[in-house]
Specification:
CATH superfamily of the largest domain: Bordetella uptake gene, domain 1
CATH topology of the largest domain: D-Maltodextrin-Binding Protein, domain 2
Strand content: 15-25%
Number of strands: 10
Structural class: alpha/beta
Shape: globular
Helix content: 40-55%
């Protein structure tokens, strides 16, 4: 065999071997624990939902999925960790609107490109935000809260889980829609923000329903409206924000993404296992009891949602004149 042909044959042999090894790796996936990055503090809505989904995913994959909380910079720290991780399926992001489609429009220093650096796996769940006030705030409805805020311009304040989070933008939408002057107070996560509201360090906030529900039932917080397009069965007498006279929807969505170069076969395996987990009574009913709807979309459908939300929040942020430096 001539030298040139020997070289080509050797190259083909190596390529074939590499492809076979890669296929074997995918077939064995996962053969060790998977790390699910939750870009939020423990106890917040992202963390609560991430843990429920990860437990179900552990069961369907037959391998442990460990939730790793990486709070800070409105989710940028956790998202960057995944964007720069080895694309092998063992480091995933339990993403939400803040770090994926909101913060990139607020800061010119975002260390990743959402539309380029992630491979969507599935939309896992969605849940309406709930408008909360401290019980000492003299308002029992959205209409009364708006009247109170207008009578005290610049005096009422609202908490969020950080600049650029979904609950921050929900508050900004409230300001725009209601025409009120209220002051934003960011915290390092939704859980610290809700703790501040419980202590009446702030007057109000939008938050996910799961972590707020026990406090609502105990009377430690007062809920005025839910932000979805329909009422929640957990609070059937609670009107929606739209029913209260404001034309906007504040529903949080949560999904799994992987680093962009993750093999398609691994993405497919993660997608199938997650959808299966979300359909199990343990996960589906458990989320429903917390006011969260289990979804389970195709990777393509989730990619479209991310693109649509990217455009939507870019418009909202420009209209509100927001610019936040997360450095």
């Amino acid at each position: 065999m001539k030298a040139g042909l020997k070289s080509v044959a050797a190259t083909l042999l190596v390529t074939a071997f590499s492809g076979s090894a890669g296929a074997q790796d995918v077939a064995r996936f996962p053969d060790r624990p998977i790390r699910m990055i939750a870009p939020s503090s423990a106890g917040g809505p992202v963390d609560v939902i991430a843990r429920a989904v990860s437990q179900g995913l552990s069961d369907t994959l037959g391998q442990q999925v460990v939730v790793d909380n990486r709070a800070g910079a409105a989710g940028l720290i956790g998202a960057e960790t995944v964007a720069s991780a080895t694309p092998d399926g063992y480091t995933l992001l339990f993403g939400f609107s803040g770090p994926l489609v909101i913060v990139p429009h607020l800061s010119g220093k975002t260390p990743y490109n959402t539309l380029r650096d992630f491979a969507p796996v599935t939309l896992a769940a969605q849940a309406p935000y709930v408008l909360l006030v401290h019980p000492s705030v003299p308002a029992n409805s959205v209409k009364e809260l708006i009247a109170l805020a207008k009578s005290r311009p610049g005096k009422l304040n609202f908490a969020s889980g950080g600049n650029g989070t979904g609950i921050h933008l929900a508050g900004e939408l409230f300001k725009l829609s209601a025409g009120v002057d209220i002051v934003h107070v960011p915290y390092k996560g939704a859980a610290p923000g809700q703790t501040a509201l419980l202590a009446h360090e702030v007057d109000m906030m939008f938050n996910g329903l799961p972590p707020a529900l026990p406090h609502i039932k105990a009377g430690r917080l007062r809920a005025l409206a839910v932000g979805g397009d329909k009422r929640t069965p957990l609070l059937p007498d609670m009107p929606t924000v739209a029913e209260s006279g404001l034309d906007f929807n504040t529903t949080g969505w949560y999904g799994i993404v992987a680093p962009r170069a993750t093999p398609r076969a691994v993405i497919a395996k993660l997608h199938t296992a997650t959808v299966k987990a979300l359909a199990t009574p343990a996960v589906k009913d458990g989320l429903t009891r917390q006011g969260v709807e289990a979804v389970g979309s195709s990777p393509e459908a989730f990619a479209k949602l991310i693109r649509d939300e990217w455009v939507k929040w870019e418009k909202v942020i420009k209209a509100a004149g927001l610019k936040v430096n997360n450095s």
